[in-house]
Amino acid sequence: MVPINAVFALGILLFFLGLFGVLFRKNLIVMLMSLELLLNGANVLLAGLGSHLRSPRGAIFALFVILMAVAEAAVGFALVLSYFRQKRTYDVDELNELKG
Amino acid sequence: MTTFVFYLFAALAVGSAVMVITRKNAMHSVLYLAFTVLSVAGVFFTLQAEYLGAIQILVYGGGIVVLYIFVIIIVNLEEVVPERRKLFPKLFIFAMPALLALQVVNVLFMNRPTAPPGTERSLEFEALAEMLFTTYALPFEVASVLLLAVLVGAVLIARRRLSRGSD
């Protein structure tokens, strides 16, 4: 049986690595990848708690999180492609049309 | 033993996650992302969430990573690494499928695997399926509607405008 503290450590570490990626990278595609890391960290926590508490709810919630991740990736890529067609760049520093 | 395998996959996942957010080349990042995702699938297997691990490999490893690679190829065609391989990668490319094929042959012909006693029916799977289709039936249906909306929305957003001409 895996100690639950190690599962917490892994999940929180993955979550914060993804958060750092989203905050500090300037490349839109790498930011989307970091979002996937973040959701994976949450999934590790859910699966670990599900097996620790002997309940299938952890796996079910993680399944829904995976569904959300797929939806986010598909729409995010559609937006990146559409933006790239117009601006020929995917640097977030160039994304300033809405600035007042 | 399970704990050791858990720590192995956890170390792999964290190490490659660090590589994902530190590599300059987006293509390298996506390969490390695939590594992370498969390591997390291994973590799921050690946590006795086998269904989740299988879904992780199928959806992430098979779907999302390939989507990322396609988008990177579309978006920055000029920055993709050129086809230039040294001796060790070449050896790796040929040795890895050969080893896997040997393994498959070994499993199929040499020693027929027999299920250990008492594991014919997995109660975990039954409990999961029953709860998913009774207690969480409404979120399940909502998720399917969400996926349909994403399908239509992604096509609508990403399609080329016809009036834009050549692009």
Stretches of chain A where pLDDT is under 50 for at least 5 consecutive residues are none
Number of structural domains of chain A: 1
CATH classification class of the largest domain in chain B: Mainly Alpha
Principal-axis shape of chain B: globular
CA distance, first residue to last residue of chain A: 55 Å
Residue windows where pLDDT falls under 50 for at least 5 positions of chain B: none
The overall pLDDT average of chain B reads: 83
Q: Rounded to an integer, what's the Rg of chain B over CA atoms? A: 21 Å
How does the helix and strand content of chain A classify structurally?
A: mainly alpha
CATH architecture of chain A: Orthogonal Bundle
Please explain how this structure is put together.
- The complex is a heterodimer of chains A (100) and B (167).
- Chain A is elongated and about 50 Å long.
- Chain A has helices spanning 4-24, 28-52, 57-87.
- Chain A is mostly helical and 100 residues long.
- The mean pLDDT of chain A is 88.
- Chain B has helices at 2-22, 26-46, 50-75, 87-110, 123-133, 137-158.
- Chain B is mostly helical and 167 residues long.
- Chain B has 2 domains: 1-81, Four Helix Bundle (Hemerythrin (Met), subunit A), CATH 1.20.120.1200; 122-167.
- Chain B has 6 helices and no strands.
- At the A-B interface, α1, α2 and α3 of A face α1, α2, α3, α5 and α6 of B.
